[in-house]
């Protein structure tokens, strides 16, 4: 497997592979929303790079909004408690909404956000997740658009963090046993 400039990391998906898949997802979303307006809702912080790239691959009249959530006890999120840290700036009532996530894991975050937004009666609500870990699901939820379906690996880069680090890696990476600390 390819290595990176940083010690203890190996590449799972290269920036080229990500770009190709994001372009395909953008084309699919463009087909599905032809002639419609769209609100792209990014889930901070992990979804920021994906939203940035996906938005430029989607040829529709789009606006951005952002939400932030926190789950109690990082790594011990099975409590199921998700808290809203930053709400939408504007209601999505009557709008076409695309929630943009870097990764769909237990599904707790997206189940919570889907419920929150459905309460506002959007015209349509869709989910785009670059990565999906179906084996980890606690809440029953699927994304409408999935980049890559992966086994239960701890992934970092392209928005995804390890203790807030590595979000800026251009590739999606795994930590190897020689990872320092
Ligand atoms: C991560 C990831 C998703 C969520 C997926 O975010 O970016 O938002 O967890 O997990 P789930 O399906 O089990 O809910 P995190 O809460 O780590 O915040 P971050 O995006 O700021 O890193
Ligand atoms: Mn996140
Ligand atoms: Mg995180």
From TrEMBL:
Name of the molecule in the record: Hypoxanthine phosphoribosyltransferase
Cofactors demanded by this protein: Mg(2+)
Organism from which the protein derives: Occallatibacter riparius
GO cellular component, one term: cytosol
Phosphoribosyltransferase domain ranges (all copies): 12-162
Family per similarity comment: Belongs to the purine/pyrimidine phosphoribosyltransferase family.
Keywords, sorted A to Z: Cytoplasm, Glycosyltransferase, Magnesium, Metal-binding, Nucleotide-binding, Purine salvage, Transferase
EC numbers on record: 2.4.2.8
Single GO term (MF): hypoxanthine phosphoribosyltransferase activity
Superkingdom per UniProt: Bacteria
Pfam families: Pribosyltran
Pathway terms, separated by semicolons: Purine metabolism; IMP biosynthesis via salvage pathway; IMP from hypoxanthine: step 1/1
Biological process terms in GO annotation: GMP salvage; guanine salvage; hypoxanthine metabolic process; IMP salvage; purine ribonucleoside salvage
InterPro entries: HGPRT, Hxn_phspho_trans, PRTase-like, PRTase_dom
PANTHER family assigned: HYPOXANTHINE PHOSPHORIBOSYLTRANSFERASE, HYPOXANTHINE-GUANINE PHOSPHORIBOSYLTRANSFERASE
Subcellular location: Cytoplasm
Catalysed conversion reaction: GMP + diphosphate = guanine + 5-phospho-alpha-D-ribose 1-diphosphate; IMP + diphosphate = hypoxanthine + 5-phospho-alpha-D-ribose 1-diphosphate
Entry keyword Cytoplasm: yes
């Amino acid at each position: 497997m390819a290595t990176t400039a940083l010690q203890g990391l190996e590449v799972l998906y290269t920036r080229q592979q990500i770009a190709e898949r994001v372009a395909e997802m953008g084309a699919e979303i463009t087909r599905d929303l032809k002639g419609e307006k769209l609100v792209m809702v990014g889930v901070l912080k992990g979804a920021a790079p994906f939203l940035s790239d996906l938005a430029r691959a989607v040829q529709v009249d789009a606006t951005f909004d952002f939400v932030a959530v926190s789950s109690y006890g990082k790594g011990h999120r099975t409590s199921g408690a998700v808290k809203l840290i930053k709400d939408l700036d504007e209601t999505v009532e009557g709008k076409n909404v695309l929630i943009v996530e870097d990764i769909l894991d237990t599904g707790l975050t997206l189940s919570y956000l889907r419920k929150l937004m459905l309460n506002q009666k959007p015209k349509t609500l869709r989910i785009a997740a670059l990565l999906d870990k179906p084996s980890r699901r606690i809440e029953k939820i699927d994304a409408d658009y999935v980049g890559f379906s992966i086994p239960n690996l701890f992934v970092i880069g392209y928005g995804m963090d390890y203790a807030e680090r590595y979000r800026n890696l251009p590739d999606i990476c795994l930590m190897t046993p020689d990872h320092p600390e």
